[in-house]
TrEMBL record:
CDD domains registered for this protein in UniProt: YkuD_like
Coiled coil: 33-60
Organism: Spirosoma endbachense
Keyword check for Nucleotide-binding: no
Protein name, UniProt field: L,D-transpeptidase family protein
Length: 410
């Protein structure tokens, strides 16, 4: 009887052990299954979220492309494949947003003398909550917005080679105006070579001092550049470029030495000392043998006139008055200089840049003699953009297509 009870007890204990371990395994199995289910559900949620984010990124890129198209940007570079990743799309959005605000560097620029002030984080901020209004707030420059309206008006016309070419020229100018944003200027000068015009603008696009300019001939092109006015010189000397001295003046001097005196020209040696022209063997001089510098004395007969605006650049290009002011009214040919820019209203421009009435209304008429050049410091660097915009708007917002005087339109 006792043995039977013992075996019953052993059986019960064994059963309990088996139940415990089997139950434990069942619980572990159930837990594993539950975790696998949760993991599958979480992965599904993540895939759905990633898909939503991808679709949202695609939608944002589409919206940015639509806006970019409307302001003349070629968006064909921003097409995407079916296997594109969200990060790739985000990079394209950032690139396109930066171009809508800051443009691309125009290919015609030969010298860049202004430091850029580009906010690279701007595209990251705006890409998450994109709306055309957010970019429009940045693009508040009046001539730019006027040109955008003309661009979209022409886009709605029946397609033709003429319309396509007009749109291409407008796109170039729109890019130039976006490019100005890279420098965040307060007030700045824009010289448009094809228009033969100079305007001073503020941030909003308000125009100050519109005036005519005379720029370089087709074979003596005025280069496009971004630069700034360093200082202003009253009664400047004209240091004749060596190429002009040799190619244009030397034959006239050989023919008649009085040419130097008649043009108020001085001959200087390498030590900046004046040399008597009678002591020079002019016939022996040539392009490879010309150890002199020719300088025109200051005064009303000076080719630079009475005011010169020194620009930062290595190309010896500057803005200046002229001793032939009647050229602004006697002819419409305003592309006749050796490359520098003659301005119609030097006194007004100088006073504007200096920020005070330094030159009075009678300065240009007094024509004092024996004056030494006087350099006037300006309060701060004044940005200057010399550009080649064939298509542009005037002060009234009217669209103009100017003559392609240098043949660069194509």
């Amino acid at each position: 009887m006792d043995k039977r009870k013992i075996w019953i007890g052993v059986a019960i204990l064994a059963g309990l052990v088996i139940v415990f371990f089997v139950g434990r395994q069942v619980l572990l199995w159930q837990k594993t299954k539950q975790e696998e289910k949760q993991n599958r559900e979480q992965a599904l949620r993540q895939r759905k979220q990633a898909l939503r984010q991808l679709n949202q990124a695609k939608q944002t890129l589409h919206q940015v492309c639509q806006y970019a198209d409307s302001v003349g940007i070629d968006t064909s570079r921003f097409t995407i494949s079916s296997t594109v990743s969200k990060d790739d799309i985000a990079e394209k959005i950032a690139q396109l947003l930066m171009e809508t605000r800051y443009g691309k560097k125009p290919s015609r620029i030969e010298f860049s003398g202004l430091p850029e002030a580009v906010d690279s984080s701007w595209s990251e901020k705006i890409s998450t909550t994109f709306s055309p209004a957010a970019i429009t707030d940045v693009a508040s420059f009046t001539p730019y917005n006027q040109l955008v309206k003309h661009y979209n008006r022409l886009r709605n016309r029946k397609a033709s080679p003429g319309v396509a070419d007009s749109l291409r020229l407008i796109r170039q100018t729109l890019n130039f105006y976006r490019y100005i944003n890279r420098f965040d200027p307060d007030k700045f000068v824009v010289v448009n070579i094809p228009a033969g015009e100079l305007n001073v603008f503020d941030r909003s696009g308000k125009r100050f001092l519109p005036m005519k300019v005379i720029t370089g001939k087709k074979d003596k092109r005025t280069p496009c550049m971004t630069t700034y006015i360093k200082d202003i010189v009253a009664y400047p000397y004209w240091n004749v470029p060596k190429s002009i001295a040799i190619n244009e003046m030397l034959p006239k001097i050989r023919k008649n030495l009085a040419f130097l005196n008649n043009q108020n020209l001085q001959v200087l040696d390498s030590r900046n000392r004046e040399v008597d022209p009678e002591d020079i063997d002019w016939e022996s001089l040539s392009e490879t043998n010309f150890p002199y510098r020719i300088r025109q004395a200051s005064g009303c007969e000076n080719s630079l006139g009475l005011i010169k605006f020194d620009l930062e650049n290595p190309l010896a290009i500057y803005l200046h008055d002229t001793n032939g002011r009647d050229m602004f009214t006697l002819t419409t040919d305003r592309w006749r200089s050796h490359g520098c820019v003659r301005v119609q209203k030097p006194v007004e421009l100088a006073n504007f840049v200096l920020g005070k009435q330094t030159f009075d209304a009678g300065f240009m008429n007094r024509c004092l003699i024996d004056q030494k050049p006087q350099t006037l410091s300006i309060p701060k660097r004044f940005p200057v953009f010399i550009t080649y915009n064939i298509a542009d708007v005037d002060a009234a917002g009217q669209l103009h297509f100017y003559n392609d005087v240098y043949g660069l339109g194509n």
